[in-house]
Specification:
Oligomer: single chain
Distance between the termini: 90 Å
CATH topology of the largest domain: GMP Synthetase, Chain A, domain 3
Largest sheet: 3 strands, mixed
Shape: globular
Strand order of the largest sheet: 1-2-3
Helix content: 55-70%
Structural class: mainly alpha
CATH superfamily of the largest domain: DnaA, N-terminal domain
Number of helices: 22
Number of domains: 4
Order of helices and strands: HHHHHHHHHHHHHHHHHHEEHHEHH
Length: about 400
């Protein structure tokens, strides 16, 4: 502050032949007494289109052969700074032999090339866990770290979402050029891959990757977190919303549709918790009621924070004792760490209590078996003997039919 006060005296009575030019990247730290005596000009970062065009002119002037994809890769890494882009172009020209390709820039800057990201996206799309892990190992062998890889994956899936969301727009070309930092041929590839994903699925993937990125930055075992989230994505089941399930029920044959209410009641009466569920009571709420509300709870949670709904997709309430609800999760420590975060725990608890009209506290435990393993267990009632509508409901909700003895 003493230095600024000394400068202020000079500014108040400047020599006639002197012009002061100040440059800063943190204007907020300059005292108002100084700013009020200056003319201020804010210089913003260059947009991607202008930066690529400028780099192309420089390359032509210096007779540097460089591909369009490599230019975009340099401009993307420069983040709007022409100075940084020029330095990277100069380094690439001295580093590469012959024409500069995107692989050369990736090796120079330590970034992830687009081809690897497309292959990764395809492996996740096809639920190919082996290929997903092989691609991860290939990137780690090249010296990439977990935060860097997650950032690249986030960028790729974000681009897929933008391309998917603008597919029906009449001005999609202009929107994509402003929002997606990729050359034209890559936009075509993105559009092709995006057609295999739903927008809801892309949002869920982005939410999970973003949650993992927060953990990776704070965790000393960042690689482990990255491996878990990639395996989760590559082994995911088909995500369906309650709206989709309702549409499937409504699309059943007419006789089944007429008796759907009666059959649903029958199914609800015959479906019992699995052996590890303790059917105890809380104040004004039973475990069975929470189990029946769980799909609705996940749907409403997804509307508020989709990533939490994704982490709870394979969960189920397993015990209720003295107003403490225990929720079973798959054997991924990532799930419990994210869900136990104070803000997430508060959101989940408040929403569930609002639905149940109760005052529950939630704890988490690891399930000893997955929902798919439960489906493989024999039930005391043969599913084939049940009505068609009941069979469909059992498949949708991963339920087990139990033949209860009827009382006279």
């Amino acid at each position: 502050m003493e230095a600024f006060n000394a400068l202020l005296k000079t500014l108040e009575e400047p020599p006639a032949h002197v012009k002061f030019i100040f440059a800063t990247t943190v204007a907020s730290k300059i005292p108002g007494t100084i700013l009020s005596r200056c003319q201020r000009f804010d210089f913003r970062r260059m947009d991607m289109t202008t930066l690529v065009a400028t780099l192309k002119k420089l390359a032509q002037a210096e007779r540097i052969e460089i591909s369009e994809a490599a230019l975009f890769s340099i401009a993307r890494a420069a983040d709007g700074s022409l100075r940084d882009a020029e330095v990277a172009l100069e380094q690439a020209s001295s580093f590469a032999k012959g024409k500069i390709e995107e692989d050369d820039v990736a090796e120079l800057l330590g970034s992830v090339e687009s081809e690897a990201l497309f292959a990764w996206g395809q492996a996740i799309l096809e639920r190919n866990a082996t290929q997903t892990l092989q691609l991860l190992l290939a990137q780690l062998d090249q010296g990439r770290d977990a935060p860097q890889l997650l950032m690249s994956l986030l960028r790729h899936f974000r681009n897929l979402l933008i391309v998917s969301s603008t597919a029906a727009s009449s001005s999609k070309g202009e929107l994509r050029s402003q929002l997606v930092d990729e050359p034209e041929e890559r936009l075509i590839e993105l559009e092709k891959q995006a057609q295999s994903f739903s927008e809801q699925e892309l949002l869920l993937i982005l939410q999970m990757l973003n949650g993992a990125y927060d953990l990776v930055r704070r965790s000393p075992m960042g690689r482990l977190v990255l491996e878990m989230v990639l395996l989760k994505l590559a082994t995911r089941e088909q995500w369906q919303s309650l709206e989709q399930i309702s549409r499937r029920l409504e699309a059943m044959q007419d006789p089944a549709r007429v008796h759907v209410s009666e059959a649903s009641e029958q199914a609800a009466a015959t479906v019992e918790p699995s052996s590890d569920v303790i059917t105890s009571e809380g104040e004004g709420v039973r475990l069975e009621a929470i189990v029946s509300l769980w799909p609705e709870f996940l749907e409403k949670l997804g509307q508020q924070k989709m990533s939490l709904s994704a982490y709870l997709a394979d969960s189920r309430p397993v015990a209720l004792k003295e107003n403490v609800l225990t929720v079973g999760l798959p054997s991924f420590s990532l799930h419990q760490e994210v869900l136990s975060h104070s803000d997430n725990r508060k959101l989940i608890t408040n929403l569930l209590n609002s639905l149940c009209q109760s005052h529950l506290t939630i704890t988490y435990t690891t399930l000893t078996e997955s929902p798919s393993e439960q489906l493989s267990k024999p039930s005391t009632t043969t599913p084939a003997a049940a009505p068609t509508v009941v069979q469909d409901i059992v498949k949708m909700f991963n339920a087990t039919l139990i033949d209860r003895p009827r009382t006279a």
